[in-house]
Amino acid sequence: MEKIKVGILGATGAVGQRFIQLLENHPWFEVSFLVASQKSAGKLYKDAVKWKLETPIPEKVKDLFIYDISNLNTNGAKILFSGLDSSVAGEVEEFYAKNGYIIISNSKNHRMVENVPLLIPEINYEHINLIKHQNYKGAIITNPNCSATFFTLVCGILNKKWPIELINVVTMQAISGAGYPGIASYDILGNVVPYISGEESKMETEPQKMMGKLDNGKIIYENIIISASANRVAVIDGHTESVSISFKEGVPTIEELKNELRNFESPIFKMNLPTAVKFPVRVMEEEDRPQPRLDINFEKGMAVSVGRIRKDNIFDYKMTILGHNTIKGAAGAAILNAELFVYLFNEKLK
Amino acid sequence: MEKIKVGILGATGAVGQRFIQLLENHPWFEVSFLVASQKSAGKLYKDAVKWKLETPIPEKVKDLFIYDISNLNTNGAKILFSGLDSSVAGEVEEFYAKNGYIIISNSKNHRMVENVPLLIPEINYEHINLIKHQNYKGAIITNPNCSATFFTLVCGILNKKWPIELINVVTMQAISGAGYPGIASYDILGNVVPYISGEESKMETEPQKMMGKLDNGKIIYENIIISASANRVAVIDGHTESVSISFKEGVPTIEELKNELRNFESPIFKMNLPTAVKFPVRVMEEEDRPQPRLDINFEKGMAVSVGRIRKDNIFDYKMTILGHNTIKGAAGAAILNAELFVYLFNEKLK
Amino acid sequence: MEKIKVGILGATGAVGQRFIQLLENHPWFEVSFLVASQKSAGKLYKDAVKWKLETPIPEKVKDLFIYDISNLNTNGAKILFSGLDSSVAGEVEEFYAKNGYIIISNSKNHRMVENVPLLIPEINYEHINLIKHQNYKGAIITNPNCSATFFTLVCGILNKKWPIELINVVTMQAISGAGYPGIASYDILGNVVPYISGEESKMETEPQKMMGKLDNGKIIYENIIISASANRVAVIDGHTESVSISFKEGVPTIEELKNELRNFESPIFKMNLPTAVKFPVRVMEEEDRPQPRLDINFEKGMAVSVGRIRKDNIFDYKMTILGHNTIKGAAGAAILNAELFVYLFNEKLK
Amino acid sequence: MEKIKVGILGATGAVGQRFIQLLENHPWFEVSFLVASQKSAGKLYKDAVKWKLETPIPEKVKDLFIYDISNLNTNGAKILFSGLDSSVAGEVEEFYAKNGYIIISNSKNHRMVENVPLLIPEINYEHINLIKHQNYKGAIITNPNCSATFFTLVCGILNKKWPIELINVVTMQAISGAGYPGIASYDILGNVVPYISGEESKMETEPQKMMGKLDNGKIIYENIIISASANRVAVIDGHTESVSISFKEGVPTIEELKNELRNFESPIFKMNLPTAVKFPVRVMEEEDRPQPRLDINFEKGMAVSVGRIRKDNIFDYKMTILGHNTIKGAAGAAILNAELFVYLFNEKLK
Description:
4 copies of one chain form a homotetramer.
Chain A: E1 4-9, H1 14-22, E2 29-35, H2 45-48, H3 59-62, E3 66-67, E4 79-82, H4 86-98, E5 102-105, H5 121-124, E6 139-142, H6 146-161, E7 164-173, H7 185-188, E8 192-193, H8 199-210, E9 213-215, E10 218-220, E11 225-233, E12 239-247, H9 254-262, E13 281-283, H10 292-295, E14 304-311, E15 317-323, H11 327-344
């Protein structure tokens, strides 16, 4: 089978690099088109990028030319992954969507726009049908904020069976979430920074849309009250979340709750999407897990780990949730969204 | 004035070292007696200790002889600071208390015992009168778990004016809280460990005693529901706490709440205790403070910093609280307790 | 082909765990026998081990029984990998060697013994023939100290062409080199410790043996003067070495030197050993490489990276050398030695 | 006595902040004038600075107005400390020097200029007389690169008694040396970066000037061969140096060498300079010291610690040297230079 050509918007940035790394041996996709800012446009990728990942730059991408953000000659790529900075993502993504391209975006700009799907496909893949109501010749599909992803996946599974009323989440987030150069070493080494700009409001609003129901081409937001506190810690990759939840009614036993999570089979797994994981949540029983250093790479970073599930004095339950912020929380999530799009809307690529 | 001679139980441990450091130039106290385990007993302090603090071993302590834990020849010391490991603290502290010594303990063993004062003297110094009801010839006075200290000081101040119903606290705790050698570097470097043995239950129970009222020689526990989640992070000193609170009734405005904290004058400050701080809580307005690296040494580590005070979606307010875990949360707290004892029960030392 | 059964001595320790991880899908070897200290003996592996690696315990090993160190019923294993602590390795390894087992040891105890091969097989695989002169029914084969491995591989290649006179090496070593629990976090977080017990003398003596020539069943030590200074830094895996060298005569040009390293083909690669790498040295041209976080996993941790090769004011050249201390510097090295043994002495396993 | 008014060029930067911190309670100097780049000029200091030190902004400086770099209305300040970035320091420092100001600079720009003193006053305070040969109405006085400072102080003391021939130095440098924001956390957390731009050449050239002799208004450079390798490690403050030295002739015994260092009395101490330390070198005997976390604050960061002094296989001796890079290696060094200037050239301030 001939691979589907794809492009990367924001190819030299932290998320762009992760896209390129994860797509290196992707069975469906092949990177053929790169876009970056003025500073890098006009150069070869290997000359423009300050590559920061543990695996080398893929050979096939090294010598790709970098185009600027208004280029429509995409070398056959119809799907464009966007890791653009939010300062430009809004305009650039719309430009390409209007011109017929499928934008699979990790940026925040369009996430809360009415007709734009905001997907954690394990819990709301059907939201992708919102694109039928978009006014673009192409489409825009988004994945959520990394910190919102992990607890929303867990809560979204539970919420289908036992409606949730309250979620309190306190995060300990990795530095890679801030991009590159991101946070100065002088600020975070041996330290905790109890603030991440804009992060808490994303965690408090995106989940309602994601857990909402698609009804007549619109999302009816789920009515859950969320409180989020975001902290940065000296961890490279992996966001740890201390999460407390209360149910509206019908509180499950702790074993019911664990079983629901550990037995939850991703509904998109049977579509044979290359990046989909059958059991997207791992329930850990060790008293001191999950931990970012030991657990983020479970299922190649596409699953979420939950541990320390226990009864709470104030809420019904509390637990620790961990996910890989630049894979399941960013580039990997977007790639899964693209696979879902190809599976369901294959004709759009013709 | 001649200084009061004091001893250190557990002199070579992490808390013991901090006692010795903080007492180096203390205007009232002078270290004259050291006790440690079999391994160190019989040696000079400088030969037995693996000193781990940034200032050198005080000259006067270097050559003190280390006694074993059943020695009653205390070289004139009547007040004994205990940084003993909880595996031996119970028995050893009682032994000395029975023999007429005043035990100022940082260990957990006697904290929840009925007639033992558990003090954050800024909010409950009158609890020290519990010692009148002890059956020791001497006395045992304790300070709380380090993580319990910081939010209880803040909540204790507020609770006097606006009774608190709920406290949810998620900690990011420094490695020095685990003593020495404590947590292996392989476990915490670039990592978060979402578990600290026994810590959460201390945080959920000690505050009710500390915020309780002394009535007829007994403490009537305060009725507040507390939920605590403890995490270890790669920070040397300083526990950061993400705290949410709800009041029973009469919710203050945010300005009332901040003013109450920032204007709270420690009732023991007027006693002229050397270690007492006039304003034990600092309210910070910067959006990204407090941070352990920048803020733990405020008021020589004896004050607590509070920042990011804001309205919450679930609770009434949430905020970030920071304290120095081995000073205000351990050795410094004990020294303040000793000063309080000397001020109020001076005759007992005769 | 049926796999060769192997055992692990010291199975629960840091090196033992790495052995088990690296052998999980090994095409030749299958772990069938585990030995550990009294504390763990008699338990199942999954119950005894405090597993610290990022991949889960291999399924096939989880339920293996742990034997104590005098057990000769090895469940078919004839090759025994030793990650034993040096306090017991000497005796235990000899015990098994005398009883006919092939000991592939990472421990220091036998490295400098006359008839024991000390192998970096890329440069001295023929030393393995020393085992013909051992008085064991079985044999003992060793790999060097991790820090000695990396610069000796590089210098060993160069020394064959241009005899080396002096080597000055200053290391910045990862914490995993200290085993588990190893160095306390309180000692190394945000710190450098300029001392590692016994390390410098190993680096100053083992290379002479390894670069020596096998002559009539004896090693004639190479005459090179080495000075080593060992430092511990806050890195999980990967030893970085700042190395300066002078040649005895015939100094190569910088390009000759780089070409010799980058084109050096491992003589054991053509034996088709599963763990052998064709080009065991990578020469990097970026001015700020190699770095442990980015470069230790090159060739699955079995190659060494060299960068910043430049002329020196005192020595002829200086450079930065990096290797994965628990793979190429320990467990991976031992596995390669075992493969070499199987290739050359296959009949001994019958 | 009325204090001498001083200004800070580059007041908002990392070195500028350290100047302001260290001068807070200085007995001779009082900060009255601040200069910073366009971005900050025109604002009050407290509004422009992103303060990063553990002590609060001094009250007296908080509300000082920030001027731009061509302002000559210095509010009475005649001595100007420069922590300017090297991209502008050259021009700005000359501008002020020409206009009669005494520039005490930490920047590299003028260090190697013929008539500019490059001072470690403990070993070469008489070099300050070079200013008599400057063509400025004012003067420029510099202190060396931080990494050059520490080993040059130690070697400079030894060299006076036993001439040194060779110095090999490998550094492990703190992140604060890179200024703010400096090195990205993503680059250094859990890592070593074996390269610091421009650092090695400063370490290889500045010492010859500093150890040189002042002869007829010129410095005759000392003839010592130096090789430097610079590494960045995850440490906040404190550069650790692994140093090897050979003497030209007359090698001292190890005890002679240690005694020379530990008994070396700073020749400027008797001038009663507030920042001068009597014994600027501490010799440590513990096998694992000095360490940045424990030892940088010795003598308020103005002394250098030396440990692990031992015989070497290649050089005569090797040792570990540690200094506080932003105090003795930067701002503290400059303040000491200013004190020396005031002591010797007091009339110039009239």
